[in-house]
Amino acid sequence: MTETAPEHPRESLPLDSTAQLLTRITSQLGNQLSLVSPNGTRRPMHRIRTSAPTLVAVAHGSRDPQALRTVLELLDRVRELRPGLDVRLGHIELNEPLLPDTLDGIPGGDAVLVPLLLGRGHHVRHDLPRTASAARHLRTRVAAPLGPHPLLVEALYERLVE
Q1: Architecture of the 18-34+61-161 domain
Q2: What residues have CB less than 8 Å from 128, skipping those under 6 apart?
Q3: Are strands 87-91 and 109-115 parallel, antiparallel or unpaired?
Q4: Long-range contacts, stretch 124-131, CB < 8 angstroms, 24+ apart
Q5: How many other CB atoms are there within 10 angstroms of residue 6's CB atom?
Q6: pLDDT band at 6, cuts 50/70/90?
Q7: Strands 138-142 and 87-91
Q8: What DSSP string runs through 49-82?
Q9: How far is Cα 143 from Cα 114, in angstroms, rounded to an integer?
Q10: Dihedral of the alpha carbons of 112, 115, 116, 118, in degrees to the nearest 10
Q11: Residue 79 pLDDT more than 60?
């Protein structure tokens, strides 16, 4: 007898904008963050860290004011879910604060750069590691970008159908 994987029901709301996509990703991020204790460890683990790293959300930057509002709403949600976590924003270009300035403002310790980007392009492969290594007073890591993510494929499909 062959077992089949259970089907996951798709949400009925189409994705009409980047803001809606980020809202859904934020919801999933909230679910994942609920598995992490305030000290940065997974809840089932008993290892204790002395301090959580600073989370630096790295946005590309945009001339569209809605883009900045969306990123700030995302960071507010992360802060709400993790009230003890130092969460900061740095932009690659077009908006302030720029990433080097954000990193300069962190007094020391560990920082995790989380690219709010949709793919592993030039910024993720080259610009972020270069900027992180220039912040010599920090121990930095660069997380994976948001995409490619199945929700992006769904959003692209919905837009193409339109």
Answers
A1: 3-Layer(aba) Sandwich (3.40)
A2: 58, 99, 113, 115, 142
A3: unpaired
A4: 127/92, 128/58, 128/99, 131/99, 131/100, 131/103
A5: 6
A6: very low
A7: unpaired
A8: -SSPPEEEEEE---S-HHHHHHHHHHHHHHHHH-
A9: 5
A10: -150
A11: yes
Instruction: Look at residue 151 in the predicted model and tell me its pLDDT.
Output: 77
> What crossing angle do the helices spanning 150-161 and 18-33 adopt, rounded to 10°?
160
Contact by Cβ (8 Å): 55, 86: yes
73, 59 contact by CB (below 8 A): no
Quote the pLDDT of residue 138. Answer: 94
State pLDDT tens for residues 34-77: 666 666 666 554 444 557 899 999 999 999 989 999 999 999 99
Largest Cα–Cα distance of the chain, in whole Å? 60
Only one residue has tokens 């690219």, namely 115
CB neighbours of residue 17 within 10 Å: 12
Q: Where are the domains of the chain?
A: 18-34+61-161
* Sign of CA pseudo-dihedral 18, 56, 140, 130: positive
Question: What count of other Cβ atoms lies within 10 Å of the Cβ of residue 151?
Answer: 18
